[in-house]
Design goal:
The complex is a heterodimer. Chain A is mostly helical. Chain A contains 7 helices and no strands. Chain B is an all-alpha fold. The chains are: A mainly alpha, B mainly alpha.
Chain lengths: ~230, ~90
């Protein structure tokens, strides 16, 4: 939280402290988001019906929409990587949105959580590239002309290494910034000041989750496609 | 998707997304180049040359990323305008 402001009461932290576990806040809240998703997934799949109702309906709509979006962009190959992308999206959007609930905190407002996800993305798309193309994957780094290779190779390597860094910083900056703004506005005008911001920030949270998901999808598309 | 209904205006949403993607690419590439150069210098003992070379490469990589991104956006814009033209 922002420096100098009173420290908020974080419910999961307090609960874990009282049991005697000293776990960093972002890890505790990442577990909380995971637990929430697991419970919701369990509830949604407990009574599966051909004509979905309630929670099952909601999850079928969300996951079906995401899957058709991925297949539209990557093609049929996208179905193989879809579970990874969908899990990432659901985790990030849950993590972002629980930060808006009083007493809870976003796991994504910490660089460590985001860096873990971004490095996983980096390793995952390179793994797919190597699996699809073998040693020929290096052609993805060599640019369009053979005489440009000595220049393009370091440039491409730098821009690939910059990807996890920019993914991390973008999510971290947006979510942490939101929380600081909320804390400051709450100090200025409690409830009245923060209430309108909740609409803006719930939208921004969704957009940031979607941006992370979409960029991961674009990177995977790049490594699954032919080099050109 | 729920997300689609949050803002009905697709262009606003795309603009927010592009704005948050474009700027950081430029900065992070530069920093990655700088860091690679710094560590190579430390390892090979060739102060300051590799740092400068990789810093310039990082800047080029950042601008290349932004250039590709802007090209993609302008192509999408053009496609959208042509689509509207056919509708009219």
């Amino acid at each position: 939280m922002a420096g100098g402001l009173p420290h908020p009461v974080l419910l999961v932290d307090v609960a874990l402290e009282s049991v005697g576990l000293h776990i960093p806040s972002h890890v505790a809240y990442a577990w909380f988001a995971m637990a929430l998703l697991i419970v919701l997934g369990f509830l949604a799949t407990r009574k599966m019906a051909m004509v979905p109702t309630g929670l099952q309906n909601f999850f079928e709509l969300a996951i079906g929409g995401l899957e058709s979006f991925v297949v539209e962009n990557i093609g049929e190959k996208g179905r193989k990587v879809f579970p990874f992308l969908c899990a990432l999206f659901l985790f990030i959007i849950t993590g972002n949105l629980i930060g808006l609930v009083p007493g809870l905190d976003s796991p994504t407002n910490n660089v460590n959580t985001n860096a873990a996800m971004a490095i996983t993305v980096f390793l995952y798309y390179n793994f797919w590239g190597l699996k699809m193309w073998g040693p020929g994957y290096i052609k993805h780094f060599m640019g369009p002309f053979w005489w440009l290779v000595p220049l393009m190779l370091p440039i491409e390597i730098i821009s690939h290494l910059a990807r996890p860094l920019s993914l991390t910083l973008r999510l971290f900056g947006n979510i942490r910034g939101e929380e600081i703004v909320l804390a400051l506005l709450f100090a200025l005008a409690p409830v009245i000041g923060t209430f309108p911001m909740y609409f803006l920030f719930s939208l921004a949270d969704c957009i940031q989750a979607f941006v992370f998901f979409m960029l991961t999808m674009i990177y995977l598309k790049g490594s699954l496609e032919h080099a050109h | 998707m729920v997300f689609n209904r949050l803002i009905k205006d697709r262009q606003t949403r795309d603009a927010i997304m592009n704005a948050s993607v474009l700027g950081l690419n430029l900065v992070t590439s530069t920093f990655v180049g700088l860091i690679i150069g710094w560590f190579l210098d430390k390892w090979l003992g060739t102060k300051p040359w590799l740092l400068l070379v990789f810093l310039v490469l990082g800047i080029i990589a950042g601008f290349k990323n932004v250039f590709m991104e802007v090209k993609k956006i302008s192509e999408a814009d053009k496609a959208e305008h042509e689509g509207h033209g056919q509708d009219d």
